[in-house]
Write a structure and sequence with these properties.
This protein has helices spanning 2-63, 77-87, 153-163, and strands spanning 91-100, 103-111, 115-122, 128-135, 167-176, 179-188, 191-198, 204-208. By secondary structure, the chain is of the alpha+beta class. It has a domain at 70-208: Nuclear Transport Factor 2, Chain: A (Roll). The termini are far apart.
Length: 209
């Protein structure tokens, strides 16, 4: 009788041990699955974070006023030049479009036989914001230009963006050694690149990082 009871107890112990082992194996498998899911979730989160950071960088450039889309420019350069020339009687030497103290403006440089002036014109409403004048009787009138002789600023910006997919920071048109030149600055993920473009042919002459 004692032998039977002992045999039964041993059998029960073996069954319980087997159940315990199965339970431990199940717990280990579940822990491994949880760990794998956590790793996958972490990897997915890292990818999302990288994508979000890239979007945030682009958004930051726009929201802080560093760059502007061409379609968002409200005043045509020709109009801004005409507005400047109603304020100061002179010939065009340079026109520049940029962000100035949080506002997008044209800076139009004009000269005549006696004076030189920089007229700041608002892109928003094409109104004169400020004019700086100084006496200069030794102006080289050969440095003056006609805006109509150049390709449009839109074409110049497009030429630059064909070389690098960046956002517009600023552009200007002036003469360099007698040659009509656009200078276009783009920003790509906080990296600035300046292009010099032949304002008559549209040829990209230089690209500086």
């Amino acid at each position: 009788m004692k032998f039977k009871i002992l045999t039964l107890l041993l059998s029960a112990g073996i069954v319980l041990a087997a159940c315990g082992n199965d339970k431990d194996d199940s717990q280990q498998a579940n822990q491994q699955d949880d760990k794998q899911q956590t790793t996958q979730s972490s990897d997915h989160k890292d990818t999302k974070d990288d994508d979000q950071q890239e979007m945030d960088d682009t958004k930051t450039n726009h929201t802080t006023g560093q760059t502007i889309a061409v379609k968002d420019i409200e005043t045509d350069p020709k109009q801004a030049i005409e507005t400047a020339q109603t304020d100061f009687d002179g010939k065009l030497k340079k026109v520049e479009y940029k962000n100035d103290m949080g506002e997008w403006v044209y800076k139009v440089e004009l000269v005549n036989n006696k004076e030189e002036a920089e007229v700041k014109v608002s892109d928003k409403d094409n109104k004169v914001l400020h004019t700086d004048k100084e006496m200069d009787e030794h102006q080289n009138m050969d440095d003056t230009l006609e805006y109509k002789e150049a390709i449009s600023y839109k074409e110049a910006v497009k030429k630059a963006q064909n070389e690098m997919n960046g956002d517009l920071k600023q552009w200007q048109l002036s003469k360099d050694d007698g040659k009509l030149i656009y200078e276009v600055e783009l920003i790509d993920q906080n990296k600035e690149i300046e292009f010099k473009i032949d304002a008559k042919t549209g040829e990209v002459l230089e690209m500086e990082h």
